[in-house]
C-alpha cells in the first residue's frame, strides 16, 4: 500500500464534530459514583465547551446547588446517574433539586436499561435519558432535549441536523 505524504508545511487542524447545538459555557454537574466515569464524561462535556463540576453522590449535587444559589447563580444542567452505591442516586437528587428550583434541567444516566426512568424520563422529571456507554453526539442531543424540556434557551450552531 502506498500513501502519498503531505508537504511538511501543511498543517491540518483537527476540529471536533459539531453536535448540532452550541453548549459552550453551559454549567453542568455530573453525578456518578465511579470516578473514571465522572472523568470521561467531564472530558466529553469540556469538548462540547461546557463548564463542568463532578460529584460522587446526590448529597454533593444538592450542596453544590445550595452554594450556587447563595451566590446568585445555578448550574444549568445535571447529568444524574440513577444508581449510586452507598449514596443518594439521581432520582432522589432530582426530587430535592426540583423542590428548591423547578427549572432544573436534568438527564437520567444509567447502564441499566430496565429502569422505567430510562424509557420515560419525562414522567419522572428528567428532560432526557442516556444509556451508558454513549457517544458525544448522544450526549449533546440529551443535553439539548433536557434544556428544552426545562424551558431554557437553546442556541443552535447552524450545522446540518440542528433542530
What does this structure look like?
- The structure is a single chain.
- By secondary structure, the protein is an alpha/beta fold.
- The chain has one domain: Response regulator (Rossmann fold, 3-Layer(aba) Sandwich), CATH 3.40.50.2300.
- Helix content is 34%, strand content 15%.
- The chain has helices at 35-47, 58-70, 90-100, 116-119, 136-149; strands at 27-31, 51-55, 77-81, 105-110, 128-131.
- The protein has a 5-stranded parallel β-sheet, with helices on both faces.
- Strand 3 (77-81), helix 3 and strand 4 (105-110) form a beta-alpha-beta unit.
- The protein starts with 26 loop residues before the first strand and ends in a 14-residue tail after the last helix.
Number of helices: 5
Class per helix and strand makeup: alpha/beta
Stretches where pLDDT falls below 50 for ≥5 residues?
Answer: 1-19, 156-163
Strand order of the largest sheet: 2-1-3-4-5
Oligomer classification: single chain
The percentage of residues in β strands lies in: 15-25%
Helix percent reads: 25-40%
CATH topology: Rossmann fold
* Distance between the ends: 42 Å
Mean pLDDT: 83
Describe the SSE topology.
Layout: E1 27-31, H1 35-47, E2 51-55, H2 58-70, E3 77-81, H3 90-100, E4 105-110, H4 116-119, E5 128-131, H5 136-149
Parallel strand pairs: 1-2, 1-3, 3-4, 4-5
List keywords for this structure.
disordered C terminus, 163 residues, alpha/beta, Rossmann fold, five-stranded parallel beta sheet, 5 helices, single chain
Amino acid at each position: 500500500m502506498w500513501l502519498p505524504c503531505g508537504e511538511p508545511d501543511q498543517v491540518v487542524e483537527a476540529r471536533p464534530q459539531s453536535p448540532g447545538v452550541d453548549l459552550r459555557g453551559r454549567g453542568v454537574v455530573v453525578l456518578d459514583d465511579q470516578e473514571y466515569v465522572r472523568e470521561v464524561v467531564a472530558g466529553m462535556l469540556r469538548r462540547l465547551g461546557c463548564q463542568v463540576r463532578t460529584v460522587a453522590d446526590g448529597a454533593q449535587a444538592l450542596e453544590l446547588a445550595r452554594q450556587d444559589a447563595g451566590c446568585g447563580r445555578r448550574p444549568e444542567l445535571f447529568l444524574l446517574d440513577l444508581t449510586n452505591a452507598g449514596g443518594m442516586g439521581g432520582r432522589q437528587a432530582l426530587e430535592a433539586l426540583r423542590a428548591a428550583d423547578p427549572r432544573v434541567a436534568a438527564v437520567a444516566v444509567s447502564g441499566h436499561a430496565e429502569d422505567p426512568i430510562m424509557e420515560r424520563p419525562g414522567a419522572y422529571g428528567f428532560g432526557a435519558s442516556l444509556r451508558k456507554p454513549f457517544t458525544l453526539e448522544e450526549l449533546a442531543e440529551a443535553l439539548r432535549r433536557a434544556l428544552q424540556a426545562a424551558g431554557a434557551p437553546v442556541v443552535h450552531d447552524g450545522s446540518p441536523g440542528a433542530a
